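Section: Multi-chain targets

For targets with more than one molecule, the full set of components is provided together so that the structure can be written out for the assembly as a whole rather than chain by chain. Components appear in the order listed by the source. The example entry contains two components.
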Amino acid sequence: MSLILTEEQVQLQDSANAFVADNWTVGELRKLRKDTGKGYPEALWQKAAELGWLAIPFAEEYGGLGLGFAELGVVLEELGRGLVVLPIVSSVVLGGGALRLGGTEDQKKAWLPKVCDGSALLTLASQETSRHDPYAVQTTATRQGNGYVLKGRKVLVPDGHAADAIVVVARTSGALGDRSGLTLFLVDPSAPDVKVHRNLLLDSRVAANVELNDVRVDASAVVGTVDQGADVLDQVLAEAAVALSADMLGGIQQTFEITLDYLKVREQFGAKIGSFQGLKHRAARWFCEKELSKSIVLQTLRALDEKAENALQLASVCKARVSDTARLSGKEGVQMHGGIGVTDEHDIGLFMKRGRVSEMLFGDAAFHRNRFAQMKGY
Amino acid sequence: MADVDSFRTEIRAWLAANCPPTCQGKSNVLPDMVWGGRRQTWPHPDAKLWFDRLVEKGFTVPTWPKAYGGAGISPAENKVLQEEMARIGTRSMLFNFGIGMLAPALMEFASEDQKRLHLNRTARGEIRWCQGYSEPGAGSDLASLRTSAVRDGDDYVINGQKIWTSDANVSDWIFCLVRTDPEAPKHLGISFLLFDMESPGVSTSPIELISGSSPFCQTFFDNVRVPVTQRVHTENRGWDVAKALLNHERTMLADGGRGSAAGAARKSLLQVARQAMGASEGRLPDAAMREELVQWEMDRLCYEATLKRTMDAAKAGKGMGPEGSMFKLYLSEMNQRGADLRQRIAGHEALVWTGDDCPADERQITREWLYGKASTILGGTSEIQLNIISKRVLGLPGD
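Its structure, encoded as tokens over all components, is:
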């Protein structure tokens, strides 16, 4: 496993970079605050689909490209650099990922080709609590006739308002907090007893709260094995944490570069502020954190592709490290810009906001340190 | 690939014919490191025999050109050689500041005669080198050094004092920065000399550190005569050589630390923690310390990934450059933090300095904590590394 990009990956990176330059500016985020529709630019979604990006991790028989997270990570990093808003993590990694890992042949045939060509958007509804806690599931799925009845409330469902299908985590047995007893269901959000509340997040992305008021689903809606849903869930959440880390890495690098440029031009006391040790030593330490983050992202993306034994451990190392670095970047980016950094007019705040949301999605650094500790016997 | 395979076959045959059985396997008779030089001793005659055979083949420094004492093999072939030696539990033992630090600088700056002489002697393990850089008044501001070299006929006459000269009292030769022009700006009056530590007028005195005895020495020069022919590169341009060498030193410090950071034979921090505090419901009972331990372990994994990324880039023909400063900075701080954490975890037992009921590994914990304080100072302090990163990597203006 080499931690540098292959020639093909460099080409993909160039193409993603050009895509952002040609189609997007960070300022679009300010416009999205007023959007009441899907919350992402639909024309760009179509272009991303045409470029094959949504098909990257899926097998060819389902319309995929048969590539892996190393490639998807390259794309996400470049989109993250530009703070582009597209539901790739939601549809490709979360919803599509759950089907890829646990779906029946019928489910995969019905949905994955649509995920790959962008004609359908999938997502995952797992969280219910204030802090990320994958097994704290109170939503119940009760057996009834040839199906189940789902009841409960999900929070922070990424792009849930725009989804064509939602993979819902519900409890079929066991107690709150148990790893066993969870089951995944494919739910149609337009069903009469599903209520979706659209919430605009602080970084102009959208997540939904989803109410399930005795929603009836057929037994064929089960994704994976009844009561063993955590096997798929753990993997999907780890993959999402790593995918999001790649997105954050892009934002971290861009924040760093913007700020470094500013340190070289801004003058106070008759000198460039980047000549002051109080700032340049911090910039140097920030540089180190950025480089370490980049290394662990590259390594973990490849570990997922190789199905390495320690892939889930690395996913937690990765999300913890990159979340910490994202927080550092947000803080230093704004602080080193001084007054202009706290204005809405300047882009640096937008980078901090995106980093903040990603930092806390799918487990923040504290969550993943604890998870790593549990896996390693600390 | 076929070339590498045939090289492997060749190496296997050579090892089978030349490496004494006593120098293979777990209980071999080899010393950890051979520093070389006049004072080298051998724990077993077979170790010496094996070393001589390695020297003859150029395998103490396999990738150096044959003309300078190496075997002239490629990095890929060297990988095969190291793998094959590891496979039978043997190694090439020579370790020396001359190899990792001085030699790359000589290859870049020395005359052909100097290269042939000094590189060959270094490769053969005939010289143990020490580094005459820091002075009592020139630490972080190394270029303000004052040890003087005054031209007298075909010699320089050296007067002054060096400090932090690692192993000066057991070394054969020194590579030394001296001031040859006191009137010039400080970086432009320095020359780079090589000379014998047995020259009349050289004396050394070891330095005791907070952790106890140490390899560091003070070195004094009292009218030491050094032939002008032993100057490397142009007079007054020694700083060019010095800088290149410091870059190699940082690389060596970053790379050399890997073995000790991994610490195969040592207890992991987790093992020390389990021993000291036990477990409650399968986890360490002290939540704050558990968090700190995990943070450290994660940092270590991220550091390892970064080293690997850099080596992968090097294999693909992209050099490391000034990011070397990052490795020195990060590794020394991480190891210092690890040693600090180790002592805090070990607790009361690790406070004992000496006594008849104090296991060696606990005494070691204390000394490592103290010695760790030196790691962020030697080879350029952390603050100097931050200056280097901000200037050379980030391109920020000087102050």
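Chain A has three domains: 7-120, 123-227, 231-376.
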